[in-house]
Amino acid sequence: MEAYKLREGDYCPEAGGTFARVSGAEALLERILFKLRVRRGSFPLMPDLGSRLYLLPRAKSSARAALGASYAAEALAGEEVAVTRTEWEEESRRFTVFLQWQGEELSASVYLGEE
After folding, report:
1. 100 Cβ partners below 8 Å, 6+ apart?
2. What global pTM score does this model have?
């Protein structure tokens, strides 16, 4: 599996005018980060793409960790990964998903600042 490398929503350029590509775990993480950051329902032809993590800051602080875990599982359904745990950091407004993929531990973090 191969994917284009993204940073802050933009493709990463390489010398010669091409874009950087990644494979393996790095490609998987690019896809997972994309799915976690995109608002679920924002692509009309793919209404199940994305997550509802953007709703976390609006929820009661006591419910954010459980909601985040549910939203992450929903967004990553169909991926060949197992969500082992999630963390919500109230002060930094960061949500982190810890994953297991082919015996490898991975993590993906999303910043969910105020809207």
Report:
1. 81, 82, 84, 106
2. 0.80
Q: Where are the domains of the chain?
A: 2-111
More confident residue, 29 or 27: 29
Residue with tokens 């010398």: 15
CATH top-level class of 2-111: alpha beta
Cα–Cα distances in angstroms (integers) from residue 29 to residues 7, 36, 70, in the given order: 12, 10, 19
Q: What is the rounded distance in angstroms from the CA atom of residue 35 to the CA atom of residue 107? A: 14
Asked if pLDDT for residue 9 goes beyond 60, the answer is no
- What gap in Å lies between CA 79 and CA 11, rounded to an integer? 22
Q: Which two tokens stand for residue 12?
A: 């990463």
Under the banding of pLDDT at 50, 70 and 90, the label for residue 113 is confident
